[in-house]
């Protein structure tokens, strides 16, 4: 609770951003995002695009896992679906980028609903493992439907075309990736002010009670799967435009684990958590690269980088789950609360 | 139809199925005692195999000593993992504990790559290599002896469950934790015991798997097939792990033999989804009744 924000209407109480300060910070963020490409170098732009794509996908997974409580380890495979759809549309038809992204999301959504069907009978970890199964089956399709996907060699994707301008550099792509990711974030944040989003939360908290209260589990669980895989599909499409090569090996199980880890580290069931988690997990390897580069290891450094990265990745998951199960978002909330209440202190 | 080919493939499948059953057993042991779904099972196998490799090749110990040391080392590792990472998670949601094991598997892969690099390695030969003929069918010798080891170990494990005090305590904890406490069983110690025993069994399975297919840091993929085995059999059923282990081994071999290697995973995972649709708690798993 914030001091000095008396609310005088329900609309005000429900609004996403309810204080002037928040709007002020939001405006600052907006200006920073607009100015960023003009001051940053290629490396930072590359990272910014990657972070934005990961945020989009992690937010999608957050809808399913964080808000609806259905654990999925198939997020990477759905991204693969989006990426392949975009690649095929771009190669065969040359349709506009936005349309391709929507198509990618749509295809992923359809398959997501099919994959979600077991969730009606299967719960918890059994479900998580059935999504692993689905992602292996998708991987098989990517690798073996050679006439459509180019087999194990994969496909190259022409640069996205935006009214005649090829988006072939990180600078140009930034203007596609970041707005799309932002739109998806705002939609996700608003989703949980609607009936559908509230139903998701009710299902997460106790699915049987939710059903008793009149929430059709079948419809809402499948909706959640559909939305989550739509997000993954669009993020995968952006991924395809970003890396420009799509192969079956681009979307391993490890990537699904990465997104689940991002959601956990950031904080399950909050929009901010998905954002913070995706930023953090994308930046950690880069920071590690810097640290290993500083250490006087010489050529050893390059050799140990990859294993060290794997170890740190695992330790982060374990550490957050044991010591801060609510994730980065909770740390951030604590800092914020300190300033809101200042000069008083929060108890406990 | 070439019957001999079918027979040979089936025998090979049952041979590797024995290893699945053995690893599935160690998985079920952990699940029954502590309700932890251990995704790191494949990496525990890998760690056991690498420990043996390290002792035998890097330190030059005799093979039998290396095997014993690897088994003991893995047991220690299991105890440490249980104490440091699993015990603090008691009472948390199953999903969180599951993710902890995912993190652990990543740590183990990283450690192995750090110490032994990501390259393929070969374990020193220690199994007899003269061909084994069953009637007219040829069985790869390593698979045959691996199966014997697995079968013997499964029998020993079952006997231990049945007759040893610790095994009985383990079964008691599995069937009702509160009741086990009230009759004076030290439940946390049972948890440790389950992890130690499972890690030791996994190490043996890992050594056999490693001597058949070589060592690499991606050996943990074996764990995925084991995951399918225990889900199909039912997470809390020893019988299920054994039956499904042999069944999945056979299925993989048939799919690999008749359709091609890339169909192996497809076949097992399709089976997994089919079984889950029909029997959500696996073939022999307990159906949980949910109450509000």
How would you describe the overall organization of this protein?
The complex is a heterodimer of chains A (348) and B (292). Chain A is an all-alpha fold. Chain A has helices at residues 10-14, 20-39, 42-67, 75-92, 97-116, 124-144, 146-149, 170-191, 195-205, 207-212, 217-243, 253-266, 271-294, 300-323, 328-341, and strands spanning 155-156, 160-162, 165-167, 245-246. Chain A has a single domain (20-341), classed as ABC transporter involved in vitamin B12 uptake, BtuC, CATH 1.10.3470. Chain A is 74% helix and 3% strand. In chain A, the strands form 2 sheets. A two-stranded antiparallel sheet of chain A has the order 1-4. In chain A, a hairpin with a 2-residue loop joins strand 2 (160-162) and strand 3 (165-167). In chain A, helix 9 (195-205) crosses helix 11 (217-243). The mean pLDDT of chain A is 89. Chain B has 292 residues and is an all-alpha fold. In chain B, helix 2 (41-58) packs across helix 8 and helix 5 crosses helix 6. Chain B is built from 11 helices and 2 strands, in the order H-H-H-H-E-E-H-H-H-H-H-H-H. In chain B, strands 1-2 form a two-stranded antiparallel sheet. In chain B, a hairpin with a 2-residue loop joins strand 1 (132-134) and strand 2. Chain B has a domain at 3-124 and 138-218. The chains are: A mainly alpha (348), B mainly alpha (292). Chains A and B meet through helix 6, helix 12 and helix 14 of A and helix 4, helix 9 and helix 11 of B.
Comma- or semicolon-separated keywords:
heterodimer, A: 348 residues, mainly alpha, ABC transporter involved in vitamin B12 uptake, BtuC, two-stranded antiparallel ribbon, 15 helices, globular, B: 292 residues, 11 helices, 73% helix
Please outline what is shown here.
The complex is a heterodimer of chains A (348) and B (292). Chain A has 348 residues and is mainly α.
Strand order of the largest sheet of chain B: 1-2
User: Total domains of chain A, how many?
Assistant: 1
Mean pLDDT figure of chain A: 89
Q: How much helicity do the residues of chain B have? A: over 70%
Strand proportion of chain A, as a percent range, falls in under 5%
Shape of chain B: globular
Number of helices of chain B: 11
Which structural class do the helices and strands of chain A define? Answer: mainly alpha
The biggest chain-chain interface is: A-B, 44 and 45 residues
How would you sum up the major sheet of chain B? 2 strands, antiparallel
CATH-derived topology of chain A: ABC transporter involved in vitamin B12 uptake, BtuC
Number of helices of chain A: 15
Task: Label the CATH architecture of chain A.
Answer: Orthogonal Bundle
Low-confidence stretches of chain B: none
Q: What is the end-to-end distance of chain A?
A: 15 Å
Question: How would you characterize the largest beta sheet of chain A?
Answer: 2 strands, antiparallel
Order of helices and strands of chain B: HHHHEEHHHHHHH
Helix content of chain A: over 70%
Radius of gyration of chain B: 19 Å
Strand order of the largest sheet of chain A: 1-4
């Amino acid at each position: 609770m914030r001091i000095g924000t008396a609310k005088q209407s329900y609309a005000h109480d429900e609004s996403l951003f309810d204080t002037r300060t928040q709007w002020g910070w939001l405006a600052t963020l907006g200006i920073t995002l607009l100015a960023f490409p003009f001051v940053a170098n290629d490396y930072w732009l590359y990272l910014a695009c990657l972070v934005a794509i990961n945020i989009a996908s992690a937010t999608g997974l957050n809808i399913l896992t964080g808000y609806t409580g259905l654990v999925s380890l198939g997020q990477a495979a759905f991204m693969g679906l989006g990426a392949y759809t975009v690649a095929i549309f771009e190669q065969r038809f040359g349709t506009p980028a936005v349309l391709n992204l929507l198509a990618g999301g749509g295809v992923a959504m359809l398959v997501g609903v099919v994959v979600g069907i077991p969730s009606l009978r299967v719960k918890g970890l059994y479900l998580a493992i059935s999504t692993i199964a689905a992602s292996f089956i998708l991987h098989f399709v990517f690798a073996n439907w050679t006439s459509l996907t180019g087999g194990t060699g994969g496909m190259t994707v022409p640069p996205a075309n935006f009214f005649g301008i090829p988006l072939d550099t990180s600078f140009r792509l930034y203007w596609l990736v970041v707005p799309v990711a932002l739109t998806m974030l705002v939609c996700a944040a608003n989703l949980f002010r609607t009936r559908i989003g509230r139903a998701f939360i009710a299902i997460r908290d106790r699915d049987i009670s939710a059903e008793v209260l009149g929430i059709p589990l079948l419809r809402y669980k499948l909706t959640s799967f559909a939305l989550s895989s739509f997000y993954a599909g669009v993020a995968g499409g952006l991924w395809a435009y970003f890396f420009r090569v799509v192969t079956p090996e681009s979307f391993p199980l490890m990537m699904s684990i990465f997104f689940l880890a991002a959601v956990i580290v950031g904080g399950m069931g909050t929009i901010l958590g998905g954002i913070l988690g995706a930023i953090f997990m994308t930046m950690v390897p880069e920071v590690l690269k810097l640290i290993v580069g500083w250490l006087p290891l010489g050529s050893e450094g390059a050799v140990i980088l990859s294993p060290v990265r794997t170890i740190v990745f695992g330790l982060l998951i374990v550490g957050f789950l044991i010591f801060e199960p609510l994730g980065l978002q909770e740390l951030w909330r604590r800092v914020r609360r300190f300033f809101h209440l200042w000069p008083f202190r929060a108890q406990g | 139809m070439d019957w001999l080919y079918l027979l040979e493939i089936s025998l090979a499948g049952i041979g590797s199925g024995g290893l699945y059953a053995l690893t599935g057993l160690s998985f079920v042991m952990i699940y029954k005692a502590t309700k932890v779904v251990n995704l790191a099972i494949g990496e525990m196998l890998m760690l056991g195999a690498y420990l043996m490799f390290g002792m035998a090749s890097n330190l030059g110990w005799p093979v039998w000593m290396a095997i014993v040391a690897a088994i003991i080392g893995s047991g220690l590792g299991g105890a440490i993992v249980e104490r440091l990472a699993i015990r603090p998670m008691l009472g948390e949601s199953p999903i969180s504990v599951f993710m902890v094991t995912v993190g652990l598997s990543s740590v183990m892969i990283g450690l192995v790559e750090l110490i032994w690099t990501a390259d393929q390695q070969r374990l020193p030969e220690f199994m007899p290599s003269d061909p084994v003929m069953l009637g007219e069918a040829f069985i790869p010798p390593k698979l045959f002896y691996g199966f014997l080891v697995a079968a013997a170990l499964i029998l020993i494990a079952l006997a231990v469950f049945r007759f040893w005090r610790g095994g009985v305590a383990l079964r008691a904890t599995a069937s009702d934790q509160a009741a086990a406490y009230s009759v004076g069983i030290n439940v946390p110690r049972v948890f440790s015991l389950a992890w130690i025993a499972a890690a030791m069994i996994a190490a043996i399975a890992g050594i056999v798997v490693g001597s058949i297919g070589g060592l690499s840091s991606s050996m943990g993929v074996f764990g995925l097939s084991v995951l399918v085995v225990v889900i199909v059999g039912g997470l809390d059923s020893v019988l299920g792990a054994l039956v499904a282990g042999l069944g999945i081994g056979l299925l993989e071999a048939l799919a690999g033999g008749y359709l091609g290697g890339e169909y192996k995973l497809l076949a097992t995972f399709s089976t997994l989804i089919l079984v889950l649709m029909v029997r959500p708690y696996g073939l022999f798993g307990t159906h949980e009744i949910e109450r509000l």
